[in-house]
Amino acid sequence: MPLRTPHKRALVAGGTGRVGAAIAERLRAEGWRVCAAASADGDLRTRAGAAALAVHALEELGGLDVVVHAAGDGFAPKPFAEVTEEDWDAAMDVTAKGTLFLAQATAPALRESRGVLVIVEDVASYQAWPSFAAHCAAKAAQAMLTRVLARALAPEVRVCGVAPGPVAVPPEQEERRAAETLLGRVGAPDDVAEAVLYLARAGFVTGTSLVVDGGRLLESRRARVT
After folding, report:
1. Which of 71, 43, 32, 41 shows the shortest CA–CA distance to 59?
2. What is the pTM for the complete model shown?
3. Helical pair 18-29 and 189-201, crossing angle rounded to 10 deg
4. Are 213 and 178 contacting, i.e. CB atoms less than 8 angstroms apart?
5. Sign of the torsion angle spanned by Cα atoms 173, 179, 185, 191
């Protein structure tokens, strides 16, 4: 049976951030029609907000073949003992709750198109960083949702994750973060965009995460994020 040719309609939630914008630009370069959404288009912290975002994208595009969750919040270093309820909620809301709510809101359209949901995770889901306790926990929850949603939406919808390492690093941190990778350099948001494009096309890939970190998870000899 021949593979279905997609209509190439993509929603990128968090599409105005550094990584999200790179994903949206890369998809457009490949001929996709893209709705690059910001929080003003729908607040992913609530189920109603996610539904509003889905309506916004469907009105703009007429359907969805790919949905990318690239939104996030709460990535700020703080000693474990000083983490507040507000810090915890900021990390969990858009990252974990938003992933579930966005999947709920866009599932009917993705089922209709036999599309794919791509979730931008983080290598923090695999590593214990004491100064980013809430962020690590939220990203670990998100990585599990990639697998849960792949089962829940199969066989019509594929669900995949991309777990970036140091790809959006402030200039003053580049040397230190580069030393934490096997390749000895930091990446760029475009590296994540390429991974998303691959997963959008990879028709036999679901329920797994593609790590894009320059070997960060394997490098244990040098500085670690604490």
Report:
1. 41
2. 0.92
3. 50
4. no
5. negative
Tally of helices (H runs) and strands (E runs) in the chain? 7, 6
Structure token pair of residue 141: 């929850």
d(CA 106, CA 127): 30
- The distance in angstroms from the start CA to the end CA of the chain is 50
The SS3 assignment for 212 reads: strand
CB 161 within 8 A of CB 143: yes
Q: Cα separation of 226 and 43, whole Å?
A: 31
20 within 8 A of 105, measured Cβ to Cβ: no
What digits encode the pLDDT tens for the residues 84-108?
999 999 999 999 999 999 999 999 9
The sign one gets for the Cα dihedral 202, 207, 212, 218 is: negative
